[in-house]
Amino acid sequence: MEFKGYRIPAMASLVIWAVLWEIVGRLGLTILIPPLSTTLEKLAEIAANESFWDAMAITMRTFLWGSAIAIVVGVPLGILMGRSVILDRMLLPWVNTFISAPLSAIVPVIMAVFGFGETTIILTVVLFAIWIIILDARAGAHAISPSLVEMARVYGASPRQAFAKIYVWSALPEILTGIRLGLLRAVKGVIIGQLLVSVVGFGRLFEIYSSNFLMEHMWALLIVLFALAFLIDLAFGAIERRVDHFASSRS
Amino acid sequence: MTVTAIHAPTPAAAPVPAAPIVEVRNISKIYPGGVEALNNISLSFPEGELTSLLGPSGCGKTTLLKIIAGLLQPTAGEVLVRGRRVTAPGPERSFVFQDFALMPWATVIRNAAFGLELRGVARSEREAVAEKYIASVGLKGFERKYPHELSGGMRQRVGLARALAVNADIVMMDEPFSAVDEQTRRQFQEDLLRLVATERKTFLFVTHSIEEAVYVSNRIVLLSRRPSRVSEIIDVDLPRESDPEQIRRHPTYLDAVEGIWQTLKHYLD
Amino acid sequence: MALIAEGVRPAAARPAGPGSGRSLRDGLQHPLTLRFLSFAIALAAWEYAGRLPISPSFPAFSETFAALVGMILDGSLLAAFAVTLTPLAIGITLSALIGVGLGVLMGLSEKAEWFGVPVFIVMQAAPLAALVPLLVLAYGIGNLTKVFVVCIMAMPVIVLNSFKAVRHTPSSLVEMSTSFGATSAQRIGKIILPSATPVIFAGLRLGTAAGFVGAVLAELLVTPTGIGDIITYNQSTADYPKMYAAIAAVIVVSVLFIEFLGWVEQRFLRPEKRASK
Prior knowledge:
The complex is a heterotrimer of chains A (251), B (269) and C (277).
Chain A: E1 2-3, E2 6-7, H1 13-27, H2 36-47, H3 50-83, H4 85-100, H5 107-114, H6 118-143, H7 146-154, H8 159-170, H9 172-197, H10 201-211, H11 215-242
Antiparallel strand pairs in A: 1-2
Chain B: E1 4-6, E2 20-30, E3 36-46, E4 50-54, H1 61-69, E5 76-81, E6 84-86, E7 93-96, H2 108-112, H3 114-118, H4 123-136, H5 152-165, E8 170-174, H6 182-199, E9 202-207, H7 210-216, E10 219-223, E11 230-235, H8 244-249, H9 251-265
Helix pairs in contact in B: 4-5, 7-9
Chain C: H1 23-29, H2 31-51, H3 61-73, H4 76-108, H5 110-125, H6 132-139, H7 143-167, H8 171-179, H9 184-221, H10 226-236, H11 240-269, H12 271-275
Helix pairs in contact in C: 3-11, 4-5, 4-7, 4-9, 4-10, 5-7, 6-7, 7-9, 8-9, 9-10, 9-11, 10-11
């Protein structure tokens, strides 16, 4: 976007939106939207609070555990599906089902079996994140150039070596895309899990704020969560671009 | 039968057999970012002939063709068609694209009739015209197929039928055969010669293949490396009525190919 | 910010390897055989785990299936779906109309892109589910809130996919239409929109999936109505087969609905796909 010959940064319009937010909030058009400035004041207030940092710690812990499990299970499974027709045909229907299923409906099952603790939230994160990771790792394995696979065989690579030295690296661009999308879904999972469990972490805070009609407090939490998701996206996008050339050996 | 080489920049002095239908005057093109593609090019294209633009890859041949087509704007200079300045595409010019530019969601006949569809020609009428040209490029029976069901060569025939169906006087072709295999390419070149003979249109042809340029052209414009200037204009006078094998072994053909190669070699280092 | 259109993945179909005298193996490897086998294994595992039982709150498949049949027969499942699907259908329709419109507009106009796209990128990345408690505070526990939830969940991906689809129209097709003298209206109607259709529809499918997540979430969080009511009520009375049956039903319905969208696209908007079959 250019304006009178000057380039305007792509995300600069967010500033305009922030100003609009402030105006709508000040005019009091809807109780849904309090002014941005008071929300930010509340954010500073909340950030001084220990319960905020407790909630943050629980969120980060469950998010990291859940994401780690989803990646460690999802990537190898996806690559195996990409290399084995039988496995692919048996598992793909399930992956395709769960990738677009209303997963929020499954959370009560996890709650019923695993109770109202952090385990449930971790499993919710896995449930949200893993499918796209599997699918993209599978796509990456499909994209591996056949001549690289043949090269590994010609030089006598064992299946394990071929997997660790060729497949994973060659499929890395897609795998990382899958992980980035998976992490974004994991953020959604960690929030939905906490909202439904509602006795730990941000879920508990939301419960407290909403039962006391503290709109500014809620928005303050939201800003934190949105910023967190956005940073993860940016950071991973940057890593992805660095390994893009791994795909260049493909025909 | 002679190969005459006239040195630019005095193309107007060339003994052209017919009046120029397209004239290019002092065209320069600098892309945003400072890449200078064309530098002060002046050319004229005689009516009813096939003129090739030939040069090293990346030399701006396609840029020049697209400027004539009105798809790109030159930084300086002007394009005249029958003496009138043009800055946008017009019905008297049609274009064959390097990557075919077929609509994957449309059948062969709709693709071929697309130029007429845009002009608001009634469906039955435009399909009748398109059918005729689909047949003339050898695709009779494929009217209801979709592009993905055709081979690369067949797809480009659809692109050619589309360009002919609008009955433009000038048909521009941007490396039309570069995306098809060698056998198809030769078949295509022969078909193109037949079309030039029967259609009485002016063809502007961009290629990076010396053999192809010599084989199909009446006239070859050699462009230098970027920023391109006209390096040489060569009239090719081959007995095109004889069979393809003989043409490709004809001394004139071989000399022309060799001569152009000697010129282009300078641009390689 | 990577702007990869989501949900447009080439369906990688591998040709079956040639071979003679391997008909048995080929039969075993047939996609339908394997799909059936995997389905059977999953159900058998479910049945086994339920009978062990791995947890008192994990019913076997047979119990769940019986509960499902029971709920279908007494009409309670149908009634619940009617309640759940109403705000969902309204929300999806609104998101589709507004979302595709906005996305196409932003794809066509750089100014609109500059102004609008960043907001939707943030929305796409953000855990919008966290807005649900706010919406309840602001708009109560009625259908308005549910429609709102469905919209905010479904809209971003629909908008962004439509935007990318329009922005990534093959430039040679646009040039082609220009060279044949197309007007702007012709260019948009005959080139840009048809070429954007697959990615727009991928966005609609993803949006619908997100909308289902939102609808169920709203019912679980906001007011126990519809399917959400069956789930929470039976959870509280420990009638787990019914709870599981309701969850399975809503997943099946959402998958079928998304498949249906794909069918609509192929049937009415993608003539070239039909021809290849």
